[in-house]
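Journal club prep, notes for RB
We'll compare a predicted complex against what the paper describes. Inputs for the NDP case:
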Amino acid sequence: MLNEKQQTTKITTASGRPYAENENSLSAGARGPLLLQDYILHEKMAHFNRERIPERVVHAKGTGAFGTFTVTHDITKYTKAKIFNKIGKQTKFLQRFSTVGGEKGSADTERDPRGFALKFYTEDGNWDLVGNNTPVFFIKDAKKFGDFIHTQKRDPRTNCKSPTMMWDFWSLNPESLHQVIILMSDRGTPYGYRHIDGFGSHTFSMINAANEVVYVKFHFKTQQGIKNFTNSEAVEMKGIDADFAQRDLVDAIDRKDFPKWDMKIQVMTIAQSKETSFNPFDVTKVWPHGDFPLIDVGVLELNQIPKNYFADVEQAAFAPAHIVDGIGYSPDKMLQGRLLSYPDAQRHRLGGNYEQIPVNRCPYMTANYQRDGQMNVNGNGEDAPNYFPNSFDDIYADSNYKEPVVMLDSNVADWYDRNGEGDNDHYSQPAALFNKVMTDYDRHNLVSNIVGAMSGIAGPKKDIIINRQLCHFFRMNMRLGNAVAKGLGVNVEQVMADMKGHA
Ligand code: NDP
């Protein structure tokens, strides 16, 4: 008799019944109708009908690989996380790259941020860092997320993507300007996934062995170098190979050209966090490198394409809520929203027991009193107690993992127009990118990409939307505003007069 690890070579039903005919249905006569009793036909059709699970509502088109993370520098003065406790220590991880707005079949070279999601299988459980290839995001409060994403999807009537919806939303949400400038630069159309930087994007915290807390940002610098498509190259590639980034990653790993990223952190003390001119917990802002230099941590190397895409990439469930001892959250309002929404999305997509799926399992058997639910496949705790506390097992809550106390000094409110000065400055940081970081070539392409994208704005509100967005560009940098207005054939004097009227 075969055991559960041995595969029979006879074709079988899912319940293991070997059968003789896999291509011709049972029929009444050679040309007759089919029989209801052909269970093998039913099972084949019924399972096929159930092959698709809900597509991720964002980041649907993705690519994944396994890899090895190696610590190269000592950061134990900031964190007691065991993954970082020794130079040379190696930890297996899974990475998923993705576009954001498109459906599962959409083209890899669309102008879009790229997801940069990591799952480290550590000795203290799985740590997920679920970021993007951009250090910032379009909005700073999770309450806006659903509205924002609707503008990146399809128009309810035409069922087409709509530049009008996108620019309407962006022009009404000036906090999006920073990310819009990055998206409209050539970094919005990267050359596959190997040539992008990655960011944890949110502010997180680190806790050391003495239970001292600092705030951190995570950065991943590509060792392959930044490489982008121009807009016209990206558009052309859509027609040549819609799966360009997927193929590029698989090909590189298959030829053993393993892509690598340097992990770095920026560190801010709690005292410093109270003194910055910007809100360090606002995901539309960066921490300037000059004030908060990058600190080396280690190297990510991707070296294994999963044998089965659906099993290990489609079913991979990342959630920023999954942290480990030594790493903590921060008051970042987008992060706080994602702590709820990601595990919730995975429960919807994969079921309440999604962490029992092999790719999502932590390296050891977990211990808790969660039981039952659909697709419970790990033995369900067998005959062990299913409540806590109890007098029968030896599972305990280990006080060594107690988190430090967080002191609050605020009143409860929706704080938007009660913020301190600087919290609503949406212009200085994108201006620094445009003035100080970009080359003339970058600025030229930025303008032509914006003009191309805004040329799609249509309908009765077209002029209002264009002028409102131009005002943001002018406030950020006059040169940029003028160049975009000229490209769109807009009368600048009229826009300036409107701006004064609204000042
Ligand atoms: P620095 O000059 O120290 O760093 C500039 C950063 O900008 C580098 O990380 C560079 O990445 C990146 N960069 C270059 N071109 C683009 C682009 N088109 N889109 C996005 N990023 C780009 O500057 P500061 O730290 O003082 O920040 C100045 C501005 O740079 C910020 O306002 C922000 O817009 C942008 N930036 C800042 C980051 C930060 O964490 N401080 C991170 C990324 C961008 P690379 O080294 O890979 O070329």
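Talking point for the session: The mean pLDDT is 95.
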